[in-house]
Amino acid sequence: MEGNSTVNDGGAGRAAPRKRADARRNERALLDAAAAVFVTSGVEAPVRDIAARAGVGVATIYRHFPTRADLIVAVYRHQVEACAEAGPALLESAASPYDALRRWIDQFVDFLVTKHGLAAVLQSDNAGFDTLHAYFLDRLVPVCSRLLDAAAAAGEIRSDLNALELMRGVGNLCIGADNDPRYDARRMVALLIAGLRPQP
Amino acid sequence: MEGNSTVNDGGAGRAAPRKRADARRNERALLDAAAAVFVTSGVEAPVRDIAARAGVGVATIYRHFPTRADLIVAVYRHQVEACAEAGPALLESAASPYDALRRWIDQFVDFLVTKHGLAAVLQSDNAGFDTLHAYFLDRLVPVCSRLLDAAAAAGEIRSDLNALELMRGVGNLCIGADNDPRYDARRMVALLIAGLRPQP
Amino acid sequence: MEGNSTVNDGGAGRAAPRKRADARRNERALLDAAAAVFVTSGVEAPVRDIAARAGVGVATIYRHFPTRADLIVAVYRHQVEACAEAGPALLESAASPYDALRRWIDQFVDFLVTKHGLAAVLQSDNAGFDTLHAYFLDRLVPVCSRLLDAAAAAGEIRSDLNALELMRGVGNLCIGADNDPRYDARRMVALLIAGLRPQP
Amino acid sequence: MEGNSTVNDGGAGRAAPRKRADARRNERALLDAAAAVFVTSGVEAPVRDIAARAGVGVATIYRHFPTRADLIVAVYRHQVEACAEAGPALLESAASPYDALRRWIDQFVDFLVTKHGLAAVLQSDNAGFDTLHAYFLDRLVPVCSRLLDAAAAAGEIRSDLNALELMRGVGNLCIGADNDPRYDARRMVALLIAGLRPQP
DNA sequence: GATGAATGAGCCTTCATTCAT
DNA sequence: AATGAATGAAGGCTCATTCAT
């Protein structure tokens, strides 16, 4: 929502460490480059490739993002935050809790499907992505959970559902969705969400 | 089920090259070793590890299985065949076409969930796995398609469903299902299958 | 002992460049930090570590001490000067020239043994340490030479001894003396000095 | 004495794993190259340099010598063994135990002085050289100890001497001895050995 | 003057694949 | 046929040194 929440110091931020005329530019270039390279080669892309694309040296990446997970988190922070904030908003504006849930999942899927390889790494059990996983889940699971609860309370869906599991399922369904016209992740997710309905 | 019949000597095996005293033994050792290593380290495990476990030299792997995809296909051929053959059988024995579909999917999921990393590589867009993908789909999509058609004909599920897509969805849902007690792929797949029901 | 008199403003300090309000303070902080880091990580410690410890930027080090050798020299100037000045003093106060020599060597050894890695770098043939070597030798060899001469003149030691060589031998014996309780450099040096005695 | 004791299987060695027509040649090339590079650049020389000089790929080094210490030990094994075996022999052939000790030390010094950088690494407290240190000391300290004991028993030297310490002292004195005509390690060692004599 | 961001060379190590034995 | 030694391309990471602010 508010752009670069982490880097922040946006408006006032007096005490925030200044001196980033170029550093700022580099950080942005790095994020853009990483986003682009991630789309092309996945989030495991060589550090060198990202640096080259950003037009900076490799060490610059390490300075800004000590670990790969830090970089990935930074790259996708915007969307994750936007998604997190969309939950409560939808709950108010949608026709019903179930509808809010459906639309929120749609937004999440839109996000994942357009980021090649992101869904895959989200499921990776590769240690070192722990902080990445933690960030995604910490931020989004509560939101999803609240949507589920509301829909369940309204009797629109079953009540035995687990938000973490659902999110992982949705995430999984998005893997490989770009790049292959024969597979439409949105349709599959729609089936999954339809499956949440109380069974006869 | 039937050894590794498909590996070669397909049906008649007329002019099949002879001389397999030890070659055969090696091939079997290789398959067993690969299966074991795949479970431990995933299907991207170092060639050397597999060779070491099989007690053969690395070059022997390359002789028998020129590409990694060949090896993976060979390793899982049994189960894929078993799964393919189970389709028609279930259609006859199950209470209804939908029930047959459900149980067939269950078997497929059982297979994938117990093979660490297999589901992931099945979705990988990594060129070089093309033959792997082709084999899985060629063999299983028709089976799944027939089950879907039967269930649709019986009015038990929607009729706008695509077997390839469904299989990929199910495969996706199995990614990362081992090794993480917080995620139960079978439950997610059950939701997906439930979503196939005609919507009110 | 006397600040860092040799660093500049040597004797009269006629046209010495002014403006040292903070520059001075930085130089001192740098020397202290370097001394501390040298003890911890040896004289080849990363420039960054020293800068960080001094609370200054790396470039400040380069401004004050263009080469690493310059920094090392500056760090140890005090002790070297003290050692140099102790020679003549000991020659007057000691019981005999040999005793003066022995005690002077003791002081030199005390110095080296307490500076982790200094003895090692003193022997390093690494170009770039030339000025370091030169400084140590220029300053101390004449002193040692005079002590040797006096002892030889008194017939207390052999007369075929070379001060430079002796100092390097003593310096070598001090390498690795810290940090290893199984090796006592002082004892080895004592043997060496004992070996200076006229042989029967 | 018998050349390549570790690689062995020299004469009979039936059960020894064969198949080393070229591997052997490479191992030798590697040892020669390493020895040469060590002389030039010290034992910390880049793996690549050694590989290049040997005319092999880097991985070949890792195959033969998994750690750097393994390589260094292998490179100097010959001389260490020869030195170890020379001890008892000298004790029998020399005019006196002290003379045997002196000549044995001479041999050790000859070895070290001709290997640029070896003496230095022998004193390095760098972890990872532990096995290297262990090898040298395990092999040579007992030999030196016996020579010291014999000389002490004969009343030719003081009896409070420690072999490990003496060897480190001698080793230290050899550091930087090549390459600098102003420093003669042999002369310094001779002083040290002279210092072993019972003091008046 | 001081700062610390950026640079990029350099090193280590792993692994798929080829090839002589 | 089988072997496993050799190869060399990658890729990760560090650190001395320069330079814009």
From TrEMBL, chains A, B, C, D:
PROSITE patterns: HTH_TETR_2. The keyword Transcription applies. One of its GO terms (molecular function) is DNA-binding transcription factor activity. It holds the Pfam family TetR_N. The keyword Iron does not apply. Residues 1-21 are annotated as: Disordered. Residues 46-65 bind DNA. Keywords: DNA-binding, Transcription, Transcription regulation. Residues 24-83 form the HTH tetR-type domain. This is TetR/AcrR family transcriptional regulator. It comes from Nonomuraea diastatica.
